[in-house]
Amino acid sequence: MAGLVYFSSASGNTARFVARLGGAALRIPVSPKEEMPDITAPYVLICPTFADGEGRGAVPKQVIRFLNDPARRALIRGVIGGGNRNFGATYGLAADVIARKCAVPMLTKFELAGTDTDLARIRDGLTAFWGTPCSTATTA
After folding, report:
1. What percent of the chain has pLDDT over 70?
2. What is the CATH number of the domain that holds 77?
3. Residues in Cβ contact with 21 at an 8 Å cutoff, skipping those fewer than 6 apart
């Protein structure tokens, strides 16, 4: 399976979700002083939303900085959004914005740190998306 790249703020919701998803994933650092991950293969980006009530600021600045590099942006194949349904229309908005700007599919969204159902759905979805068995899936 190709890779996963994700951003998680200090709250850690997305990091907890990715850890539960299993498998290898590269994290976009919170601090601008930290080096960006070295991306050399196609990936799906997992990104939470940080927006005001009007939807401004939905995509975290760190993710914008990551995607502003043409080589990293060229390897994105899809995006999965995290968010909080309490924010209504802005729920998972970052994924919609990134998908539109990078011309890739918005694959799905999950709330906060995700549920067991979200994990199974996203594992299955990634398997179907990449067309090969997903290395994050557990075996019986």
Report:
1. 89
2. 3.40.50.360
3. 4, 119, 122, 123, 136
